[in-house]
Amino acid sequence: MKKWFVMSLIVSLFIVSACGGSNNGGKTENAANATNAPANTNNAAGNESEGAAESDEITPEEGASLLVWESKEERPFVEAISKEFTEKYGIEVKFEEVGAADQVTKLTTDGPAGLGADVVVFPHDNLGRAVTAGLVLPNDFYEEQAKTANSEIAVNAVSYGGTLYGYPRSIETYALFYNKALIKEAPKTFDEIVAFAKTYNDVPNNKFALMWEVGNFYFNYPFISTGGYVYGENGQNKDDIGLNTEGAVSGLKYYGSLKDSILPLNSGDITYDIKKGMFTGGTLAMDINGPWTIADYKSAGIDFGVAPIPSINGQPASSFSGVKAWYVNQFSKYPNAARLFANFASTKAAQLKDFELTGAIPANTEATNDAAVQGNDIVKGFVAQFNQSTPMPSIPEMGNVWSPIAAAFSDVWNSGKVAKAALDNAVQQIKDANNGTTAK
Fold first, then answer.
1. Where in the chain are the domains?
2. Phi, psi for residue 345 in degrees, rounded to 5
3. For 235-250, what is each residue's pLDDT tens digit?
4. pLDDT by residue (tens digit) across 346-403?
5. What superfamily does domain 175-318+395-436 belong to in CATH?
6. Chain CA centroid to CA 169, Å
7. Cα(first)–Cα(last) distance of the chain, in Å?
8. Most Cβ neighbours (<10 Å): which of 219, 228, 289, 423?
9. Whole-model pTM?
10. Which 8-state DSSP code applies to residue 150?
């Protein structure tokens, strides 16, 4: 759903258009040593986001060399940053193509066997699996530096059980695309969209003010965010479910009202491909979507903008977001060298290089505010939405949420079911699954 493997390449293609223009297998017996305090552990607090000063850097192991896993789309960046790292520290870095979404699964077997990469990278919603399986080390030596340099949202996303594990690198969320030929400015509220739909909608001719995947909870979360949440404690407390709070019920009621006012279709009739066809065909004025669709909309010749999702019931619309980060393999033979690389490859300078080469949107706050990012209005729109987003819960119990909550939304949209009853039923199913079955 999150399409990490597509996002970087697509955004990169857009940026180019807009401008004109590896394996030292770990040994299991080293895992215990790796969890001990690393050598030369000076306090990294207060360092600039460019990276720790020489005197505050961790001391890599003698004769260290590293293997890094990353997706094919990120090869240009990984090879470039690895070359810089080798030139500076004399540590060889090899690259092996492994999709980000597949790395935790692969590390589950390859890590203990001593075949895994020393440094891995994956979306934060896989972190719970990695931590509970004992696959990754905490980001201990560079903890304060990472917390200071990166967005608080990103830092929280790559933490688990109160411990920081990741070295944040890039962010993703969805936002509002709008066709400037049909609507000159992005609406600030959903009520404005309702008003626009009254004058614009023409159902027989497939003209609609707004579409989103109304049957997909990933895109429906904004309606829960107006006073509700999935799990408490930054998405990590499975026993605190906030999907049927008063605010969530109010949001779902409003969601249900939009079928009559802006989108009189059943949820099954609104798919990604249908939306894309209407937007590129010039009949859909607005679409809630992610950066993976930029290239298609750009190549269709649509003059579009990207803006934050309009407010709902007077509340900011928070979207689900994802954070991609580096992690150090628990079974790495060279944990200090791996820490050093993970930090080096996630500094402000590194994230800006990643943005330049692949289009990955930085998690580093200074990098986000850099002219290279702020000068791109499309990326700037996604950054603005990310700043009011909610990281998708990373605990394994998130797997128990999708089906019940999707059914609740579907019942309200397609059948007019009472919002509170639909959410109460969904929450009970989630509780039963959390307490009685293994999350999938």
1. 4-172+322-391, 175-318+395-436
2. -85, 5
3. 999 999 999 999 999 9
4. 999 999 999 999 989 999 999 999 999 999 999 999 999 999 999 999 999 999 999 9
5. Periplasmic binding protein-like II (3.40.190.10)
6. 11
7. 16
8. 423
9. 0.82
10. B
